[in-house]
């Protein structure tokens, strides 16, 4: 059942979204060559806790980290590790969820570690562009399919592939709520968007195929051909006017 948030709930969602955004910004400031993804996770968790929140991913379905840090061909859900050291030229997708006062903010950015290759740069630009094309469609009266169509058209137009096994979602008191928000779809199809809905829009994009593999840890999802992956995400509120991105550092 799709939850339409009250004004009081939206105010809490804005605060949670801002904390998630600040935590993601903190991840980006610390994502550099020589740091492990375990240490990055520790620093981000410390930041969230110090600001009165906590990391709901910890223990979710048994996940051992506080958040997810996926490097290069890793698309999503990579477990933080002391053995995984970032190096010059890597890309790392930091998927950060923060809970504050019972409400969630969820956002992701794929960061560049130093100077990256032109191939990686193009993939990141296409994926981030697809996120904002999707957000543009998150307006009152549109449907979920309008968001997915905009994302998929942008990604395929750039020569890349939307992963269809993993999708965006509603968000609020729970990390994953209705409705499902696929990164593909048909215009005018799916649930209608109404003011008060809060959704996580998150294109997950592969370089050479829509297919993925699940590693032996039963969490880390990688590009099936071992090529690069990228992931960008915002939590968005449907309003009477333009979509409001909740995962910003100021409103």
What features would you describe in this structure?
This protein is of the alpha+beta class. The protein has a single domain (7-245), classed as Creatinase/methionine aminopeptidase superfamily (Creatine Amidinohydrolase), CATH 3.90.230. Helices cover 28% and strands 24% of the residues. The protein has helices at residues 7-30, 37-50, 118-136, 144-157; strands at residues 68-71, 74-76, 91-100, 103-112, 161-162, 168-170, 177-181, 198-201, 204-206, 212-214, 221-223, 229-231, 234-237, 244-245. It has a five-stranded antiparallel β-sheet with strand order 7-6-8-13-14. It has a three-stranded antiparallel β-sheet with strand order 1-3-4. A hairpin with a 2-residue loop joins β3 and β4. α1 runs antiparallel to α2 (37-50). The longest helix is centred in the first third of the chain and has 24 residues, at 7-30. It is globular and about 45 Å long. The two termini are 28 Å apart.
Short summary:
The chain has 251 residues and is of the alpha+beta class.
Features:
Creatine Amidinohydrolase; 251 residues; 28% helix; alpha+beta; three-stranded antiparallel beta sheet; five-stranded antiparallel beta sheet; 14 strands
Largest sheet descriptor:
5 strands, antiparallel
CATH A-level architecture: Alpha-Beta Complex
- Average pLDDT confidence is 98
Regarding quaternary structure, what we see is single chain
Taken as a percent bin, the fraction of beta residues is 15-25%
- The parts where pLDDT drops under 50 for at least 5 residues are none
What percent of residues adopt helix (DSSP H or I)?
25-40%
User: What is the fourth-level CATH superfamily?
Assistant: Creatinase/methionine aminopeptidase superfamily
CATH class: Alpha Beta
Please list the strands of the largest sheet in the order they lie side by side. Answer: 7-6-8-13-14
C-alpha termini separation: 28 Å
């Amino acid at each position: 059942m799709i939850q339409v948030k009250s004004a009081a709930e939206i105010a809490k969602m804005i605060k949670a979204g801002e904390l998630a955004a600040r935590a993601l910004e903190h991840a980006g400031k610390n994502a550099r060559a020589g740091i492990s993804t375990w240490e990055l996770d520790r620093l981000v968790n410390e930041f969230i806790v110090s600001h009165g929140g906590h990391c709901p991913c910890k223990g979710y379905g048994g996940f051992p980290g506080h958040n997810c840090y996926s490097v290069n061909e890793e698309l999503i859900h990579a477990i933080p590790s002391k053995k995984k050291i970032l190096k010059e030229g890597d890309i790392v997708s930091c998927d950060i969820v923060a809970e504050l006062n019972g409400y969630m903010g969820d956002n992701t950015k794929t960061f560049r570690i130093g100077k990256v290759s032109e191939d990686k740069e193009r993939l990141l630009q296409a994926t981030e562009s697809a996120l904002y094309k999707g957000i543009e469609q998150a307006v009152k009266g549109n449907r979920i399919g309008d968001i997915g169509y905009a994302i998929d058209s942008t990604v395929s137009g750039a020569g890349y592939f939307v992963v269809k096994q993993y999708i965006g979602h509603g968000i609020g008191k729970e990390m994953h709520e209705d409705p499902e928000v696929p990164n593909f779809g048909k215009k005018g199809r799916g649930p209608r968007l109404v003011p008060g809905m809060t959704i996580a829009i998150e294109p997950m994009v592969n370089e050479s195929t829509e297919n993925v593999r699940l590693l032996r840890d039963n969490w880390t999802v990688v590009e099936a051909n071992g090529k690069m992956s990228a992931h960008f995400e915002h939590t968005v509120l449907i309003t009477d006017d333009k979509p409001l991105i909740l995962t910003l550092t100021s409103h």
